[in-house]
Design brief:
four-stranded antiparallel beta sheet; mainly beta
């Protein structure tokens, strides 16, 4: 039998059936999310390698706001976001809101600083998956300095 290019004979019906042509996908990000296609070995390797945090990434200083401005990780890989916050008086809380593509927003305390009587420093760190949006908010007006770096 002649089989078309990038096709294989198989059965994806979930029960006994005559073989039919099944698509072979050659895509590095597996974006089609097909339950009835096969992936090439190269596609599987590229997909698995693409999920490694730190591989081919470097720390970069980035500007992020604490006013619920939304940012999206569209790098094709997970990134790590680090923040450092300091203030000259008591108490501050930094929250991060994370929204996966097609998912619901999750609120997480990213950093919290408490001290009675003086300087407060806090740090936070989180991994943001690819195609995920995130934003920060602050509680308390005591933050005098903050800095973000991302492993991207």
């Amino acid at each position: 039998e002649n089989v078309a290019n990038m096709k294989a004979l198989g059965n994806t019906s979930g029960s006994a059936a005559a073989p039919q042509e099944v698509a072979i996908l050659d895509e590095n990000n597996m974006s089609s999310d097909s339950a009835t296609s096969l992936a090439t070995q190269q596609s599987i390797k590229a997909y698995a390698d693409g999920g490694d945090i730190g591989v081919g990434q470097t720390w970069q200083n980035v500007t992020r706001a604490l006013d619920e401005t939304s940012y999206t990780n569209s790098t094709g890989k997970p990134i790590m976001v680090k923040g450092r916050f300091s203030g000259n008086t008591d108490d501050h809380t930094i929250k991060i809101f994370v929204t996966p593509s097609g998912g619901s927003e999750v609120e997480i305390v990213f950093a919290i600083g408490t001290n009675s009587g003086g300087s407060v420093v806090s740090d936070g760190c989180i991994i943001i998956p690819n195609n995920t949006s995130y934003k920060f908010s602050k509680a308390g007006n005591t933050i005098t300095f903050f800095q973000f770096t991302e492993l991207r």
